[in-house]
Amino acid sequence: MFKLHLNRIILIGQVTEKPQLRYVPSGIPLCSFSIEVMREKPNSTFAEEEYDVFPIIAWKDQALYCNQSIEKGNWVYCEGSLQIRTFGETGAQKKTTVEVVLKDIFRLQQ
């Protein structure tokens, strides 16, 4: 039986921090940064703005590109998928995080 699955997110926002490049033990580059995205506050009598900050994770060539070409304050178009990770010590309280795993990124003109 055919089952349809889709995990895709598109965000346009401003980079909040300098991308951080590191390498996992296998030698694969990983770059992480965050973007801030505005949204209108629901049920408001006038246009109030709220902001959400999304952590972005880029791997391999995308990681190298982000590290070289993306800076704090840049406006970017990000496309990817959501990933939920649970981590923490065994026996200790587990922590959960939601990240955007980057597929495509474009720096927008300001």
- Count of helical stretches: 1
Whole-Å distance between the termini?
48 Å
Instruction: Count the domains.
Output: 1
Label the structural class: mainly beta
The order of strands across the largest sheet is 1-3-4-6-5
- Helix-residue proportion: under 10%
Low-confidence stretches: none
In N-to-C order, the SSE pattern is EEEEHEE
Major sheet attributes: 5 strands, mixed, barrel
Q: Based on the coordinates given, report the CATH architecture.
A: Beta Barrel
CATH class equals: Mainly Beta
Could you walk me through the main structural features you see in this protein, from its secondary elements to its overall organization?
The chain has 110 residues and is mainly beta. The protein has one domain (9-108): OB fold (Dihydrolipoamide Acetyltransferase, E2P) (Beta Barrel). The chain has one helix spanning 60-69, and strands spanning 9-15, 20-23, 29-40, 49-59, 75-87, 95-108. It has a five-stranded mixed beta barrel. The longest helix has 10 residues, at 60-69. The radius of gyration is 16 Å and the shape is globular. The N and C termini lie far apart (48 Å). The mean pLDDT is 91.
